[in-house]
Every structure is written in C-alpha cells, then in structure tokens.
Amino acid sequence: MEQLIKSIGQEVRAFAITSKESLENFRLKFISKKGLIPSLFEELKGALPEEKKKLGKELNELKQLAEGKYRSAQEETENTTDKPHEGIDLSLPVIPNKLGNQHPLSLTRYRIIEIFERLGFNLADGPEIEDDWHNFTALNFPPNHPAREMQDTFFIEKNPDVLLRTHTSNVQVRLMKKQSPPIRSIMPGRVFRNEAISARAHCFFHQVEGLYIDKNVGFADLKQTLYSFAQEMYGKDIKIRYRPSFFPFTEPSAEIDISCLICKGKGCNLCKHSGWVEIAGSGMVHPNVLRHGNIDPEEYTGFAFGMGIERVTQLLFRVNDLRLYSENDIRFLRQFRPVLS
Ligand code: DAH
After folding, report:
1. Which has the closest alpha carbon to 119: 229, 7, 270?
2. What would the CATH number be for the domain defined by 104-333?
3. Confidence of residue 146 (pLDDT cuts 50, 70, 90)
4. What is the pTM of this model?
5. Best of 167, 170, 253 to mutate for ligand 1, by most ligand atoms within 8 A of CB?
6. Can you give the residue ranges of every domain in the chain?
7. How many angstroms does the Cα of residue 246 sit away from the middle of ligand 1?
8. Ligand 1 center to residue 37 CA distance, Å?
9. What is the 3-state secondary structure (H, E, C) of 204-220?
10. How far does residue 282's CA lie from ligand 1's centre (Å)?
C-alpha cells in the first residue's frame, strides 16, 4: 500500500489541469467519493495495526496535496472559459490598419534633393527667423530700395531687424562664410510672406535654393544643370526657357519656365494660356554677394537659383489650389505616393 500511495502521489503531481474539463477529471479521478484517494482510505481500514499510523499519515499528506492542487487550479480556471473566442465572429473580414503617407510637398522635396544629389549637390540648412542683413543687405538689396518690397515681409514689431525669411536665399551668404569654394549645395525650407491667402498665394510656402560657386562657373552651367533637373523631374520631352529678369543678388538674372505639363504647351488656366509655367528664379551670383560671403569675385564665380516647391508639386500631382497643402484634410493627403525615378 505504501508503494501505491507514492505512485498516486506522483500521478497527482504530474496531472496537467488546463481547463475546466480537466479540473473535473482530476476531481473525479482522485478526490471524489469513488476516486482513488477515498478508496485508499477504505483500504487503510484493513491495514495491520502497527502500520496504520504511518500509512494514515502518508495518506493524509496525499489527500492534502490533491485537494491543494485542486483548489488552486479551481481559482485559476474560474475566470477563464474553455472557448476563449466565444462572442467573437472569426469569419468577419479584418479592418485593415490605415497606413500613413508622406505629405505631397515632402515627396517633392525628397525627389528634388535626390536629383540634385546625383548632380553633385549636397544639402544645407538655414534659419527661418532671420536678420535683415542675411535676408536682404548681404544679398545686395539697397536700404529703402523698392526691391525690398518685391517680397512683403513679416517683421518683428519690437525689433524690425528680425524677420521671417522671405526666401531661402538667406542661406547663401551663411554658407559662403562657413565654407570656402567649391560650394555646390541645395537648401530647401519654408519661407514667409505677408500676403492674402488665396488659391495662388499663401503667407508661407516652400523653396529650394541652389548655389554653385567655383572657378569658371558660367551661365551655361546654370542652364544645363536646371535642364537636367527638369528632364529628371518631368521627363525627357520637357522644354525649358530662360527669361531675362531682375534680382538684386544676381547679374544677369533669369526666370526659368518649363513647358506646361497640363496642356502640353497648348494653353490652359495654369499657364495662363501661354504654354509656359515659371518654376524658378536664377542668375549668376552678384559680385557684391560673393564679397559679403568673403569670396573674391575675381577668382570665383557662381550661379544660384530659387525654386518653389509648391509649384513643382502642382505640376507633378496636378494640384491647383495652394491652400490644400496646409489644410490637413486627410482625404487630400492620402492620395499621394512617392514619385519613382
Ligand atoms: N529668392 C528669389 C525669390 O524668392 C528666388 C531666386 C531668384 C533665388 C534668383 C535665387 C536666384 O537664388 O538666383 O523670389
């Protein structure tokens, strides 16, 4: 009998209770009236008197072991159900997770950066809160000259020397002072102008500035660089033209137009029926600007350009209202995917 108590003890320990059903099986097998342990108590009655005490003690220990295991397993299984999926219809289709996507202006910015990086330009950055000198004076805007009014500026009332930059050209002289030529950089960023908001204008928008300074840089380099860019961005059939213009910080200056992608040059609302759309201002860096950046204009020349990211995006994705970019309407924002090279 001693042997039997031991082996039933082992069985009790090894019995795995994982559900309400196995809990009940455990009870029936070991504890219930007809179970193994009560039947051992029956047997004990017929044991030899000198063995009874020892066997009785062992049997009681076995009983406590089995009842203890039963009670703790009972507590554990109480709150669980044998059918964990009850009440859930597993055949229902899943609700897909919504993936976020990048803002169209970011997509365009990355694409512009990618193209210019392949042309050997690196990335540079400058402040959005700027002083008058970097935004205007260093760029050869004379004091009180109407050229300053070309760009309606947000000034800080308490200190009119501080302003929100009106263009990314503010980074040009900062870069020249930090680095000696050759400089070949693009500077994307946000710019601000005090303008009434409409489909065609906003009080803030985005530009990419480009600057290339080295020995013997000429207008032909400017033309070919921007032509290569336009072809990469919009396809080999794109046409490009340079219109004489004026910027205080370049001489000569030119505005860059590309053939309208919407009407393929036939004339539409976007190109104001001219067949051409302006994408950038550009020119050869003015000697005064080079001097402000501590670069000798006798030794070095350079070209610069400033491109509107909204405009480039508009042509890429056919968006014709500038306000959409900053309204945060998810129905608009969800429609854009990266432009592949
Ligand atoms: N900063 C000019 C603007 O915002 C654009 C521009 C024109 C940038 C000519 C340049 C440039 O670098 O050379 O209208």
Report:
1. 229
2. 3.30.930.10
3. confident
4. 0.72
5. 167
6. 2-78, 104-333
7. 10
8. 95
9. EEEEEEEEEEECCCCHH
10. 6
